[in-house]
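Journal club prep, notes for RB
We'll compare a predicted complex against what the paper describes. Inputs for the glutamine case:
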Amino acid sequence: MTDLTQLGVKDIRDGVRAGDFTAREVATSFNAAVADAAALNAFIVTTPDHALAAADAVDAARAAGEQLGAMAGVPIGMKDLFATNGVQTTAASHILEGFTPRYESTVSQKLWDAGAGMLGKLNLDQFAMGSSNETSYFGNVSSPWRKDGSNQPMSPGGSSGGSSSAVAARIAPAATGTDTGGSIRQPAAFTGICGIKPTYGRCSRWGVVAFASSLDQAGPMARSVEDCAIMLGAMAGFDPKDATSLQMDVPDWEAALNSDLRGKKVGIPREYRMEGTDQAILDSWEQGKAWLKDAGAEIVDVSLPHTKYALPAYYIIAPAEASSNLARYDGVRYGLRDLPDGSGLQDMYAATRAAGFGDEVKRRILIGTYVLSAGFYDAYYTQAQKVRALVARDFERAFEQCDVILAPTTPTASFPLGSMNEDPLTMYLNDVFAVPASLAGLPAMSVPATINEHGLPLGLQLVGRPFDEQGVLNAGLAIQQRAGFTAKPEKWW
Ligand code: GLN
C-alpha cells in the first residue's frame, strides 16, 4: 500500500471519497508520523484522538452514503494561535500555558465542519512575533531541511514555523498559518511549500489570538497550489463575529484553477531589487518571469515607490496594535498568574507579565507603547498610518497596469537556528518583501521555485488585487507546473 503520509489534501480527499483507503487509515498514518518526529518540535501538543474521531465520522458518513465535505478525511496541523475547544491554546507563550478555551475559533470550526481532523497544535513564534521560530516558549522548531553536507539545525521560518516544518516533513498534509507581516509566506518559502494569505477579511479572526488586528489573516499552508485552493475555500467566509470579516461569497477557487495566463499582465516591481538579496533569489525571480511568460502572460515593469518605507511603518503599526491587544494578559483572566506574597493588584500585573512574556514580545510592547504615547503619537504612529496609505496606493496604481505581481518571497534562504539572534533588525528584514502586501491587505502567496546552491528551497511570491485570490492561485499554478519542484528533505528526525 502507498505511504499515505506522502499524500496531500486533494489526493487524500479524493482517495477517501473513492474508497481507496479509509479516513481512519490516513489519520493513523499521520498520527504515527507525528509521534515519530518529536525532534522537529513542530507540535506543542498532539491530539491523535481528535484526528481519529474526525476520521471515524467521515468513514461513517461515507458508509451512510452522505455527501462528504471539502476536507473530508484530511488530518491537519493547527497553528497554536487558533482557539480550540478543550485543547490548550498558548500562542507559544508562558502566559497562556494551561489555557484551555471553551470555544472554537471560526476558522478551525469551519475546517472540522468540512471533515478535517486535528493532529495537534503547532508551535510558532511567541504571539506570532518572529521570523525564525526561535521566540517560542516551547523551544525552537527545526526545519526538516538541512544544508548539503551539514547537520546544523535550520530555521523553518516564522512565525508559522511549526506549520511549515510539519508540512514539509510530511507529518501533516496541510496546516493552518497566520500572516501579519509574512508569517505564512516566509516559512513556506524556507521549507519548499505553498502558503497563501488571502485578502484581509476573507478568513474570520474570531478566536485567533490577536497580534495586530488590522493585519492578521489566517490562511492555508500545503504542498501544492491545488491543496491551498481547497483548504482556503474551507477556511474563508463571512463571520458576523468578526467586524472586519468580508461580506462576500467564497468563490470555488479549486474549480476555477487555470494556469493559462494568456491576456494577463504580470508586474515586476522595480523597487524589490534590493541590496542584500541573494543572487540565487534574483536568478529564480528571472526564471519566474520566464515561466509566467511561457504560460502566456505579458511581463511589465511596475513601480511601488514607497516599498522601502513599508517595513519601518509595519514595525510601528504592528507593535502599536500588539501593545494594545496584549494588555488583556494581566494575570486575572487567562493562563499564568504570578501573585508574590503580600503583593497588590499592580504587583500581580507586573509580575505576571514579566514572567509570562518572552523578550521579543516585551520588545514589541515597549515599542508599541512608546509610539502610541501622547508625546510621540503623531511623530510615529500617525506617520506610519500615512505611509501605510501610500503603500496601498502604490499597489492600486500598479494594478492599473498589471493583474498580478511577481516578486521574491524573501531576500535569503533559510538560515541556521541561532545565527540571527544578535540583532532584531536583521531578523525583521526577512519580511521586507512580504510586509507591503500585508499593509495593503492584499492576497499574496509563496510557491516553491527551486533549490539554491546549498540544497535549500527558495520561493516566489505572487500578489494580487483585493479579492483576487483566484488570480494569485492561477499564476501560482503556472509556476508550480513549470518549476516541477519535487525536492524533499531527507529524513533525519
Ligand atoms: N516576522 C514578522 C514579525 O515578526 C511577521 C510576523 C507575522 O506575520 N505574524 O512581526
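Talking point for the session: The mean pLDDT is 97.
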